[in-house]
Amino acid sequence: MYDTGKILAFIGAFVVFVSTPFWSNFGKAAFEPHPKLPTQYKECVESKEFMRADHMKLLRLWRYDVVRKEQRIYVNSKGETYPISLQNECMRCHTSKKEFCDQCHNYVAAHPYCWNCHISPEERKGWASKESLKKVSTEEASSELPASHH
Amino acid sequence: MLEKALVGSKKYYLWLGFLGVLILVGFCCYIKQFFFGLGITGMSRSVSWGFYVAQFTYLVGIAASAVMVVLPYYLHNYKEFGKMTILGEFLAIAAVTMCILFILVDLGQVHRVMNVLLHPTPHSVMFYDMIVLSGYLMINIICGWSALHAEYKGSKPPAWVKPFVYLSIPWAFSIHTVTAFLYSGMPGRDFWLTAIMAPRFLASAFCAGPSLLLLLTFILKGFTRFDPGDKAIKTLAKIITYAFLANIFFFLCEVFTALYSHIPAHRYPLEYLFVGLHGHGKLVPWIWTSWICAAVAVVLLVPPKTRNNFGTLAVACILVILSTWIDKGMGLIVGGFVPDPLDHVMEYMPTLPEIGITIGVYAIGFLILSLLYKIAITVKEQRGLI
Amino acid sequence: MVIDTRICRQHPECNKCIEACDHEHNVPHIPDKKHEIKWIWKEEFENAFPDTAQEYSIEHLKGTEFLVLCNHCENPPCVRVCPTQATFKRPDGIVMMDMHRCIGCRFCMAACPFGARNFNWINPRAYIKDPNPEYPTRMRGVVEKCIFCNERIDQGKLPVCAEACPYGAIVVGDLADPNSKINQILRENFTIRRKTHLGTGPSVFYIV
Prior knowledge:
The complex is a heterotrimer. By secondary structure, chain A is mostly helical. Chain A has eight helices and two strands; from the N terminus they run H-H-H-E-E-H-H-H-H-H. Chain A folds into two domains: about 30-120, no CATH class; about 120-150. Chain A is elongated and about 70 Å long. Chain B starts with 9 loop residues before the first helix and ends with a helix. Chain B has a domain at about 235-340. Chain B is an all-alpha fold. Chain B is built from 14 helices and no strands. Chain B has helices at about 10-35, 50-65, 65-75, 85-105, 115-120, 125-155, 160-185, 195-225, 230-260, 265-275, 285-300, 305, 310-335, 350-380. Chain C has helices at about 5-10, 15-25, 45-50, 75-80, 105-110, 150-155, 160-165, 180-190; strands at about 1-5, 40-45, 65-70, 85-90, 95, 120, 145, 170, 190, 205. Chain C starts with a strand and ends with a strand. Classes of the chains: A mainly alpha, B mainly alpha, C alpha+beta. The interface of A and C includes residues 142 and 147 of A.
């Protein structure tokens, strides 16, 4: 075998390099996500445990039912019915994407792109305030609006 | 065998470095497109396919043309093509790879491409195109690699490869037929709605592909000891000539039907390409360039004297490639979108980033080709086969 | 759907249906013609009906603007070519788009003989001035078109364009039901459809 020393040194350096996140965080308290739950509602469409584990599956099913099956009503395990809509129904109670969805999604580095199309509550407010602004402001200001969104 | 690609002359490394730079440029343009959207291209609501799809269509033809050396060698035992087959198969590998990349850069939501497999749709021609293209890539990797490996080991290719070799022949025809069906089955696109679309595609493929193969052979002859033999080159030149004449004949058939029937929808795209329509004629100089190239190429290819002179033959090959590239790429794809279904004319020209991405994809293809050819030539040199 | 263009002709300045649709579905207004998104819009007679229009047309048809939109064909070529079934025909005949599934290959745009389909060449959100917070937008890289307000149809409501028309020029109904009002109108009036010779079976009829 050639260059044993060099190879071993490189392997050692590599192991140290890839494990830096462990060393740098060693002994520190782990970050915990705290999604903010709605205060005025106690029950979600399904149990808390189910939603926590399988909300993405439920949303996928909803998406399929609404878009492809003309099925716009969800019947939950208790037999209660809910209109199916992420934008208008889920976010009716969960009034903040930032304080609810993003909490865990950021923690686990999940990046669902629901909000590229669906309008989040934050954006709803943002757009609305811009609209009210527009009504008061002059023509010039409103012409700048398109590029300024986001 | 792969290690043969790693060791080479200074020129070889320089060439690879040059391709690397082009790939980097293309990649940077693609990053821009990825985050901004396909709006950075010249495509529009009316001309919704452009340069990328044009290259895709052209390169499917290049890939299919490998059959023009494989078929005479394996079916007719035409020994002269023995040294060329591997070059044809490796060219097919590079070309299909480029095809796939051109489709990927053309998609609006590239990360969803697997939806084509998740929701297989047998009534879409695209579904079959995906099957035949990926199948053709696999077949050529199997056939090319095992043949070369046998040479490397000094043995014969294993028997199980034979069926794949025979399968590759109809498969080559199928890839370009299915690609033609992408276009020729759509109502309301009269320029494409023609039963000879597939024959036309095959004819243009069987002249353009072997032309590229011949040019590559000349380059290899110049830089290495590789020489397929004058007879092989002359035979391939004949194939190019016949296919090119067939291609022109098919096109003239189209022109006759469109102009003599005088049906507006059939006439308009041709008018747009050759003389301009409603005052729009950005493609007119391109199309005339294509047909002037074609005319000169015919003059050089038909007389045996110029066809058998490798100097003029090389010029003819370049002209054939140029002519078919413009005609089948920009002409056919963009022409099919003009005028649009609402009878408006919106013109198309590729933008700089679009061209950058295109060059990047070509550079990836030529990188694959260079590495594969390097391996093939080195193996052949070391075994004393050339 | 039946569009009574006799009524539309009396109100050439009226854009109520277009405005209502654009607002309802967050259709962006992109100034660059190359990147335009249109669900329902106006085209001159000669452009909407290139096969029917001719030099000797009745005076009042020349250059008149006609409403055009997705024809929700009975035999839609866009559905035939879509490699992922992102566009599909619902049992009730609406040609629907699943924006979650579209890969943006634009095969459907090449296949549609009516120019009804739009690709989001750029992010559309910046061009939506007056959004409807109840309805999603689209993102760049997907194809969109009129989806016949299927979300309203499912709730028993009329498409928003028909509802917005102050003159009742747009009538929507069930073609499969021989007793529906729409079939009665079709029996009593001479109507034309766009490019019927292509055999796609457009479901939008025009009274001229």
